[in-house]
Amino acid sequence: MTTTSMTSTPLPDTPAAPAAPAPRSSSPLDTAHSQLDSAVAVLGYDAGQRQMLATPRREIHVAVPLRRDDGETVLFHGFRVQHNITRGPGKGGLRYAPGVDIDEVRALAMWMTWKCAIVDLPYGGAKGGVAIDPRDYSTAELERVTRRYTSEIMPMIGPDTDIMAPDMGTDEHTMAWVMDTYSVNRGYTIPAVVTGKPLALGGSRGRGTATSAGIVHVTAAALGESGVPLTDVTVAVQGFGKVGSHAAAIFAARGATVVAVSDQYGGVRNDAGLAMDRLFSHVATTGSVVGFDGGDPLSNEELLGLDVDVLVPAAVEGVLDGVTAATVRARWVVEGANGPTTTDGDSVLAANGVTVVPDVLANAGGVVVSYFEWVQANQTYWWSEEEIADRLEHRMTSAYGDVSALAKREGLSLRDAALVIGVQRTAEAHRIRGLYP
Ligand code: NAD
């Protein structure tokens, strides 16, 4: 039994839950490479340029031994990849999940590079991960894992070199441990080495809900192009963690009808709209949306195929592949997760007339407010919640506008257009800086 404070808590009272669907078909790195290739083809870059854009600048693989609470020792594998640091320091989350491997971290780091460039932040892209299921470990054990991992990768990270943030399986508490370990070893407090920190340590107002708020901003912008208001749409959200839960709540608060949500244990559906307050209380008590009495049970696969207007995959990679994408009846897929749609899935959705608002644009709100947090830490001056919310909305809607305009002008999908912008800005920074020596 764990006492972890992570979002993915165990299920103390939930009856035998169905196993989570395993992500299928191509790997995240295959998907990331194929997306890069599409952008490179549009931009007409040569093989050498493509190779430079595809290859991580630096990566580290570390052993993370843990002394468990019962005295036993276990070992985990940890990674940090800086995909590109040409436009600024590496920026990217830290993921704790059992299946994490170097290729997954490479893909996530590459997506961070394009994402930061699309929303025009002065960052490159990075990502970290430890192959651990946080639900199986106590808070004290997770603290030791985090501190050991941080010490091992310390030469690579720093407020001007590579800045971490929470991702799947980690949270603001994890960031506090990273920040403390880094600061203690440097001899003074360095808040800007991480973002997504608790407010008490210099975290930013609005960071906790920023990714989700950004998802709703770009959804509103995409719907607006078809003259559809948020208040007229039904929404289904897969994943009820940091991203999915707040996205569902913000959609509902802005007048959309959230008819289904799910997590790794299963989902719940109510065509009249799920009562968010009661759903959040249920999740706080049981650790899952499963068993919520304000709706009927449904599986993750059923959720993907619901007859809704907007589908938001906000859990893991690869859930919309060539097979599951064919079941999608939504008119818009807004990617809250990183890499939820495979290359085959993308082709199927395009053929079926589904508009996909891609991850590198749709979920960029988190890194936008992480950037605001980093700026505030560097200035030691704090902004109000309204300032954060306004600046976030402006960044997200203007990035959507750039991507949509390019897509229309060049006849591209939103994904290809977003990638073209991200890849081109990165390549342009390479060109201007020149190749050393
Ligand atoms: P989280 O750990 O807080 O939540 C993950 C959620 O997904 C949980 O509800 C979990 O039960 C569910 N889940 C896990 N496996 C599943 C499966 N196989 N099927 C259905 N549901 C499953 O993670 P998060 O921070 O919300 O991240 C979710 C996604 O969003 C990830 O792809 C992450 O990289 C991406 N993302 C996160 C942020 C951020 O600010 N946290 C920013 C950008 C992108």
Walkthrough of the structure:
This protein has 437 residues and is α/β, with parallel strands linked by helices. It has a domain at 210-362: 3-Layer(aba) Sandwich (Rossmann fold). It is 43% helix and 16% strand. The strands form 2 sheets. A 7-stranded mixed beta sheet has the order 9-8-7-6-10-11-12, with helices on both faces. It has a 5-stranded mixed beta sheet with strand order 1-2-4-3-5. Strand 1 and strand 2 form a beta hairpin. The termini are far apart. The protein binds nicotinamide-adenine-dinucleotide (NAD). Nicotinamide-adenine-dinucleotide binds at residues 7-8, 20-21, 166-169, 211, 238-244, 262-264, 300, 314-316, 336-338, 363, 366.
Layout of strands and helices, then pairs:
Layout: H1 28-43, H2 47-54, E1 58-67, E2 73-84, E3 90-97, H3 102-118, E4 125-131, H4 139-153, E5 162-166, H5 172-186, H6 210-225, E6 234-238, H7 242-253, E7 257-263, E8 266-269, H8 276-286, E9 296-298, H9 300-304, E10 310-313, E11 332-334, H10 343-351, E12 355-357, H11 359-362, H12 365-379, H13 385-410, H14 414-433
Parallel strand pairs: 3-4, 3-5, 6-7, 6-10, 10-11, 11-12
Antiparallel strand pairs: 1-2, 2-4, 7-8, 8-9
Query: Major sheet: order of its strands?
Result: 9-8-7-6-10-11-12
Class from helix and strand fractions:
alpha/beta
Portion of residues within helices: 40-55%
Assembly type: single chain
**What distance lies between the first and last C-alpha atoms, to the nearest angstrom?**
55 Å
> Major sheet, described briefly?
7 strands, mixed
At CATH level 3, the topology of the domain at 210-362 is Rossmann fold
Query: Helix and strand string, N-terminal first?
Result: HHEEEHEHEHHEHEEHEHEEHEHHHH
By CATH reckoning, the class of the domain at 210-362 would read Alpha Beta
